[in-house]
Structures
1.
Amino acid sequence: VQLVESGGGSVQAGGSLRLACKHSGDTWSGVLSMAWFRQAPTKAREGIASIDSLGRTIYADSVKGRFTISRDKDKDTVYLQMHSLNSEDTAMYYCATKPGTYCRLGASDYSYWGQGTQVTVS
């Protein structure tokens, strides 16, 4: 399993970005969940959004109403659309995946991780 994130960068406060995570390798016949995490310097890794193979989603309170997770099954890609960004959103963003249908926001629930993409809001 390999996860490759893209779409990070620098943006002004109030702006938007869309992150993408391409999943290759074993996809467990499509029965899987994917999630986005982020980690700022000196802070713990935070689960912010998850989507499962049935299209169900959950969000952390810190991003609810501003971020949207979605998935293109044909492209094996999950996206994170981010709006109304602020300095608190500055972090390295990681995607993760696991077999099984249930959404989770705990890092220990996920077996496979990407290398991350940096988002900086100024």
2.
Amino acid sequence: VQLQESGPGLVSPSQTLSLTCAVSGVSITTAYYAWTWIRQPPGKGLEWIGYILYSGGTYYSPSLKRGAVISRGDAKNTVYLQMNNLQPEDSAVYYCKAGAGGATTYWGQGTQVNVSS
């Protein structure tokens, strides 16, 4: 299983962030898989954003300060993340992670997002 994140790199404050996680090696609709977005601000720990299940259900971190929407494109085997009203404190490396409830998880290499005017 391989995951490849991509995004704009630089976002202006108050704008919407759109990220893509292209998945290969397994269908995103395969039973029991959860597709998770996580970020790591510079000098800080990992922050869990939310996930979308193989069934299409979604769940988001209640501590997230920005509105987030995780969706998927089945035909492209891709998972998406949108976050609105980004601020400089949202600058981070954003990761896509996959797991099916077992010990094995798969991570993308991450994509850097900088929020700056």
